[in-house]
Amino acid sequence: MLAVVVAVSLAREYPVGAAVFGVLAVAVVLGILVRSGRLRLWPVGGVGPRRDMTHSLAAYQHMTGAQFEHAIADLARRDPGVRSATVSGGANDRGLDVLVVLRDGRRIAVQCKRYGERNRVGAPAIYTANGTYSDFHRCDAAVIVTTSRFTRDAEVANASLPVPLRLIDGRGLARWVAGGRPPWG
After folding, report:
1. Beta bridge partners of 141
2. Phi then psi for 182, rounded to 5 degrees?
């Protein structure tokens, strides 16, 4: 109580000094809260162009292949049912670009195909993913995500599989990005 009385009397006597002291005190408290992680001054994931990259199909189409794989992993991590999403693509990835592990323990192999609108995903991608996701990668299911579309041969090949893969074309990706259900949901 004595501290409050002293602070009020000093503020009346030295109003400019009290205002400067008050601003500095607030800045110090905010700095401590930000540094401790209790307060964020910007949204998780940052601001600016990188944040915009996950909000439109056009943004995905302008990414490099590696950026697209990381963006799909980031998109998967938004799902509360996902324990982890790890990028593992690259040369000789054998049909696995992102490994998604769900909280229930299921493992999902995700093959990412960032293609232009005129370049469609063909049947060989279906055969590659189908031939490796279970035996080689020890996954329970496989998903192929593209910014483009699938050829008719790819759709027929997928439909003929005993357990079809989940195929997500550009429109399906746009729905997922906009808050729709993930491919394993």
Report:
1. 108
2. -70, 165
Beta strands (DSSP E) in 33-133 are: 82-87, 98-102, 107-113
Sheet holding 107-113, edge to edge: 82-87, 98-102, 107-113, 141-146, 166-168
Q: Does 44 score more than 50 pLDDT?
A: no
Which pTM was predicted?
A: 0.69
Which tens digits make up the pLDDT trace of 47-100? 433 344 445 788 888 899 899 999 999 999 999 999 999 998 666 667 789 999
Q: What is the pLDDT of residue 40?
A: 54
151 exposure class (CB count in 10 Å sphere: 0-12, 13-18, 19+): middle
Contact by Cβ (8 Å): 16, 10: no
Residues of 170-182 as b/e, b for ≥16 C-beta within 10 angstroms? bebbbebbeeeeb
**Phi-psi region at 105: left, alpha or beta (left = phi > 0; alpha = psi -120 to 50):** left
Q: Are strands 166-168 and 141-146 parallel, antiparallel or unpaired?
A: parallel
Tell me the percentage of the chain whose pLDDT exceeds 90.
53
Q: Are 173 and 149 in contact (CB under 8 A)?
A: no
